[in-house]
Write a structure and sequence with these properties.
Layout: E1 3-4, H1 8-12, E2 18-19, H2 22-30, E3 36-40, E4 70-74, E5 77-80, E6 98-101, E7 104-107, H3 108-115, E8 131-133, E9 136-138, E10 157-160, E11 163-166, H4 167-174, E12 176-177, E13 184-185, E14 193-196, E15 199-202, E16 221-223, E17 226-228, H5 230-237
Parallel strand pairs: 2-3
Antiparallel strand pairs: 1-8, 3-4, 4-5, 6-7, 8-9, 10-11, 12-13, 14-15, 16-17
Length: about 240
């Protein structure tokens, strides 16, 4: 059956924001908060600085942070403000939120491009909802019957060779057929049926060929392709 995917993707984003302001920065550092901090070295302060971009530093000197130049700090690492860029599109994060992943910094757009859940059918990003089938994500509207293409999200379906089918199509295509009426026996919805050797009947179709009484739960005798009740069989013998 299909399960509903919750807003898994959005929760997984783990967006970070940046903070400025002396008090706020002090507090964040004390509490070891998971945020990036934009600050400036104050005169007299002489902390060692090294821009993470190293030789690719946009400032031109990874060790230089002249007074009045802002630096970004995140966890144990430091960047020049303009060097704090999305690893994919190289756009400075600026005032935007960002997403840290392993040692990389992503803007929200690139992160989505790269890591978002994609529908196995149309390959587009699933931003919310969707269904999982065989552990793979689908848009609700993409999860359709293999045969008639009606949406199966929230509907009853059956799979065959790992492909989902609506109940009607499955019945038409694959179900056992009743020997008497030739209509499919779907088994969905608790349809009861009788099997005997390699033949199957709907309960309602399982009756004596001679007197037409139901043979469900009773003894019966086969007479060529017919099934008949013991009484009719006896009369036939006489
Ligand atoms: Zn730099
Ligand atoms: Zn980006
Ligand atoms: Zn899709
Ligand atoms: Zn169908
Ligand atoms: Zn039947
Ligand atoms: Zn009979």
């Amino acid at each position: 059956m299909a399960g509903v995917l919750s807003d898994q993707f959005k929760r997984g984003l783990n967006l970070q924001t940046k903070t400025v302001g002396k008090e706020r920065i002090r507090k964040a550092q004390e509490n070891n908060e998971d945020i990036a901090i934009l600050s400036m070295d104050l005169p007299g302060e002489n902390k060692p600085f090294k821009c993470v971009l190293g030789p690719d530093c946009l400032f031109g000197d990874q060790y230089s942070l002249p007074l009045g130049t802002k630096k970004m700090e995140y966890k144990t690492r430091q960047w020049h403000e303009k060097c704090f860029c999305c690893v994919m599109c190289k756009t400075p994060i600026g005032t935007q939120s960002f997403i840290p992943r392993e040692q990389e910094i992503y803007c929200a757009k690139c992160y989505e491009e790269k890591y978002a859940t994609r529908c196995i059918k149309c390959n587009k990003v699933i931003t919310s909802g969707g269904v999982t089938y065989k552990n793979e994500p689908w848009h609700r509207e993409c999860f359709t019957c293999t045969n008639c293409q009606t949406s199966l999200a929230g509907a009853r379906f059956t799979s065959r060779d790992d492909k989902p089918y609506c109940a009607d199509c499955f019945g038409e295509l694959f179900a056992k057929r009743c020997y008497a009426c030739s209509r499919p026996i779907t088994g969905i919805g608790g349809t009861k049926f009788i099997s005997f050797e390699d033949r199957h009947w709907h309960n309602d179709c399982f009756y004596c060929a001679s007197c037409r009484t139901s043979l469900v739960g009773k003894g019966f005798i086969t007479d060529n392709t017919d099934i008949i009740c013991p009484e009719c069989a006896k009369q036939k013998l006489n």
